[in-house]
Amino acid sequence: MDHTVVITFDQDRRPVALGPDGHTVNPEVRVLPGDRLCFVSPHGQVRVRFENGSPLEKGQDGGQNLLGVVGAVGSYPYRCGVTITENGSAKTIGWPTTNIEGGTVVVDHDPVR
Questions:
Q1: How far apart are the C-alpha atoms of 81 and 113, rounded to whole Å?
Q2: What is the pLDDT of residues 24-35, one digit of tens each?
Q3: Has residue 11 got a pLDDT over 60?
Q4: I need a surface site. Which of 86, 88, 104, 110 has the fewest CB within 10 A?
């Protein structure tokens, strides 16, 4: 199954992950080994950095491309930033400028989500 995590900005202009309904903030996404995952934003390009190892193929950090989930069952916290164009210049909102934005990818073994 493919999973797309949409990153938007909260009222303080911090990147936050939206839940499946596209309206409520939900910093956790649950996946199974073999699923594919990507991170996108209507505001710009997303960069994701996993804190303690990546669950994605080849140990890659997340971004706009769908990558296979190959990590062991467990939780994988991440930090994220969105690069926007503002006044003709690229500017990153969130990580690595600040270190509080992010969420968790949970690799599960239970096919019931």
A1: 27
A2: 999 899 999 999
A3: yes
A4: 88
Radius of gyration of the chain (CA): 14
Alpha-carbon gap, residue 3 to 86, rounded angstroms: 29
What is the pTM (predicted TM-score) of this model? Answer: 0.89
Question: How do residues 54-108 score in pLDDT, each as one tens digit?
Answer: 999 988 888 889 999 998 999 999 999 999 998 999 999 998 777 778 899 999 9
**Is residue 71 a contact partner of residue 100, using CB atoms and an 8 Å limit?**
no
Tokens of 62: 């997340």
Q: How far apart are CA 95 and CA 63, in angstroms?
A: 13
Query: Which amino acid makes up residue 86?
Result: E
